[in-house]
Structures are given as C-alpha cells and as structure tokens.
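Go through this chain.

——
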Amino acid sequence: MRYLIGKGLLTRQEVVDGGLALTMSRSRNRFVMLKRRSGASYFIKQAIETEPGTRETIAREAEVYRGAFGDERLLPLRELLPRFRLYDGEQGILINDLIPDGETVAAVHNALGACPVDLGGRIGAALAAYHRVRFVEGAPQAALFPQQEPWILRLHAERDLAGMRRSPAASALLDILLAAPRAGELLGALRASWRRDTLIHTDMRWENCLLAPHDVSLPLRHLYVIDWELADIGDAAWDVGSMLQSYLAFWIASMPKDSDPEAMLAGAKIPLAEVQPAICAFWDGYIAASDAYRDQEAQFLDHCVRLLAARMMVTAFERCAWASQIDPTALVLVQTALNILERPEPVALELLGITEPGRDKRQTARAA
C-alpha cells in the first residue's frame, strides 16, 4: 500500500475508507491483485530474486508495454493489452490495470465444449495485428530481446539435458523425442529457417488470451493478450503454429484416457470436424489482416504447420514436467507431433481442414 501511494496510484484516503481487496499468489513471480471499489484496479507482478531470470523476463514484458503505450505506430498492439501503469526496474515491479471480469479463451472453449468460429477469426486478426511490428533481420536490437529460437528446435543439439529431466515423465518423453527417426534433422532444419523479423509472443496459447467482461455476449467481449514475459524478435509462424496446435490439443484433450491411441482417437467427445471451421476462421482472419504473408500464403502455411508440430512437442513436455509417468494424452500429442513433422504436406487439409491456400476459394467451398 505504501508503495502504491508513493507512486500516486492509490491515496491514503482510499485505504482509510476501505473498499479495497488485495490478493497475493506466486509462481516464478509474485502476483498481487488490488481491486478498488471505484477507479482502476491493478495487477502487480514482481520478480522473485531466488528465481533465476525473472527480473529479465519482467523487464522484457515491460518493454512491450512501454513501446505499445508510448508509440502511436503500435496502436494495434496497444488495443490488445491492459493499460500500462508503471515499471520499476530497480525493484523488478510491473503494474498494469487488472482486466475486470475476464475469462481465458481456454475457459470459454471448455465451458462451451466447442470452438466458436467468429472467435477464431478475431484471434487470427489479433495475432496479425501485433505481427505488424517489424524488424530488420540481422540488425542490432534491444538487448532485452535475445532473438533466440525455441528450445525444442535445439533439443538434439544440446549436450546436457540434465536440467530438463525434472521428472520421470519428462525424462521419458525426452527419450522418445531423441530416439525418433529424423526428428533431430527436421527440428534442426526448422532452427536453420527461423526468422527474426517481427515481434512474437512466444508463449501464445488460449490461456494467455482473455475475453472481458464476462456478462456480455461473446462477440461483444474485448480480446486481450497477456503475459508477454517471453516476448522476442522472432518468427511469426511460431505464434501462428502455437495457436493452431491449441485447437488440435483441444480435440486431443477431449479423447478418453485410454492406453490405446486408436481407441482414444475414435472416442473423442469433440469431433475434429467440429473444430476445423474455427481453425479455418483463425487462419483466414490472420491472412486477411497480414501485410507480410498474404501474398505468400501457401509457403507460410507450410512453415506454420511444421512449427505447429514443434509447439505440440512442447505442450506434451509441459504436461509431463512434474509427473511420474507420461499420461495417454501426452503420448498422443507427441506421436501426432512426430507424424506432422515427418509428413507436414497433408496436415493443412486432413487435420486443419484448410482445403487449399486461398481465402476466397475456402469461403466458396464452405458455402457450397
């Protein structure tokens, strides 16, 4: 309270009058949510000194907010963010407005048990909006952005994986990936083709997209993208592929927890055919709003599909990070990812439902 008063974000009178609710939690960082009876509420994130790298990632997130709220050219990005209030580099504190009555896109899909088509299009357009922040590849950039490709693309080149073998399940999954034929070669090719020419979120998934407020119809809710700690200058196809794999992971998660992959596929509660229209809407929304990739859609789609496979491997690893054994869903995720990586060409049609590159052709086919 003293800190916020000293920064002019709260008054002593408000503390005396009451009407404030404060909750705290932590993971890698310390989180504080301060709700006020009137006026803006705040979401406060502070680095924890004992957690390595947290001060640097909060500084990186703050750089995204400062840029978006300080440069009119970044208005499309600003519209996706909660209001930026303060960054204190000395104490590792970032303060933004708390999004009132927000709900993650993951929660929306889980509650509906379905994928709203219009929402897919909005998410695609949102990604294209912040991917308009372009950089000259190879030119010096802010040191806060390491311009590093995702760890999964370097997996087979790492000499020491001891730090990643944090659980029996994680270790077993790494062994599956390391032993998979051609996986190292194909992931290495993706690493070699990695671009460094746009702002990427890097951890793009449904859990990092919020819709608010909750008490209005879905089309009227504002879409926010949060948690920019891992933001970087990188390859737009990673964020797009990450979101595409969120749709496929939603389908896979609806399968019964069976040890037989074929039985799991057959028993999915949410058929893939019901997910594909939202996938197509997401892709169409992205391409329609993209100046950089609209004229090279087929090549960009192929690149996104390959990175989709790599991101699905990361999702499988995250499910196993602290588990004693690999669960059936993680096994289906990793096997699906390896299959896509090995044969990416038919994926756009067979899994994603994108009949062929070309927005007008797809819309005509769906109308028919």
